[in-house]
Amino acid sequence: MTLSDYLDQFAELFATFDVLGAFWQIVRLTAVSAVVSFVLGTVLALMRISPIPSLQWVGAAYVNVLRNTPLTVIILFCNLGLWAQLGLNLASPTSQTFFEQNNFRLAVLGLSVYHAAFVCEALRSGVNTVPVGQAEAARAIGLGFLPTARLIIFPQALRGAIAPLGNTLIALTKNTTVASAIGVAEASALMKTMIEFRPDVIIAIFLTFAIGFVILVLPVGLVVTSLSRRLAVAR
Amino acid sequence: MVDRTSTAAIPATGSPVGGEPLVVLDGVNKHFGALHVLRDVDLTVHRGEVVVVIGPSGSGKSTLCRTINRLETIDTGTITIDGKPLPAEGKELARLRADVGMVFQSFNLFAHKTVLENVTLGPVKAKGMNRAQARDNGMALLERVGVANQAGKLPAQLSGGQQQRVAIARALAMNPKVMLFDEPTSALDPEMINEVLDVMVSLAGEGMTMIVVTHEMGFARRAAHRVVFMDGGQIVEQAQPETFFTAPRSDRAKDFLSKILTH
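^ inputs. structure came back:
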């Protein structure tokens, strides 16, 4: 086969299947889950570094349970447990696109609670890069725990946590493919369909998705590297 | 204002300026694990008084300084500041810390904030002062410690001496009742020590109550009303600077002074 034969196969695949739409779904899942897991992870990190033992305990328990549970189990539980069994609707049941919306949001829920544990630990590693004297100085001028965390510790911890947060974002991007397990029409779901219908061009199909993910993830790594250089706190 | 010439006539344990007791430690004990770092420490510092705490390393003097604004907790005993016992964690404690200025050995300026922001953060966020006023006060304080021209820089761009002077301005911005200095010149290059000590001497001259842990005997002689000598977690001896340096009573103080004053 010549190179042009391969290019013809790609052209055919892109014409027959909505590859860009499937990847757009990946981007949406990633973006929404990243925001939600960042907020949740920040709250968890605050709990873990707080001076209140019961909050520390809850934060540690959350991280250790969620981080050590397979993502597939969490996502399936969101669908089969929270929705099918317990009746948790995250979209209006009368909506025309109820299943699509509900499954998307359940997937976001599962992805967010799972990755929040990793965000929490990334932030905590960032907190460890902030010298203890910074917190002491903040307390010494009369700031309480929350203002100290918000104004002094987290702004510096965030800069120290950019690299591990970037890794979490990359993992999240690829982990969104698990959402196909509950019927979200993202890239890996489309890939299964394509393999089923066009087993004759299987190499082209694999390459499509491999390259697609590289294109999505590569900029994240580059941005993270440049940010962590540019935002480093001078001491 | 403190009349510096009159201090020699006043007994060491009395108030040099006739002020009432401001910081009172009574029977303070503290352990770090098995190590008994503070042993039954009693210390009264009066309003307007400058007390220098000296002693060999590991004698508990830094710990003593840090217990006064509860950066270190104590096991037994009481600490009162301006008649009020030191509160436990929470809003009360934060309010008290706002009244007690602290200057650290390693400066601890907020690394991601500019010099001016370092000085205005406390008044704005802990005292609710409006930004314009905090800025004016902050600039005046930076002017006073001689670093106003560095206001827009980050701490890492300043020399150690400049950073420490900013740290003093940051503590002063809270308008504290008492200032604690925890070895403020120990991390400085020798040529920068005097610029920091000069600021401290002028502060003492203005009547600020100060508790200073230091190895700078020159500062003790110039500005202190009283020298407290600690060893092994205990206050071994306290006296006016001249008396202490020329005629120490305890053997441990004599031994310590013979080691540091030979040059």
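The two ends of chain B are 34 Å apart (CA to CA). Chain B touches chain A through 33 residues (CB under 8 Å).
thumbs up if we can close this ticket
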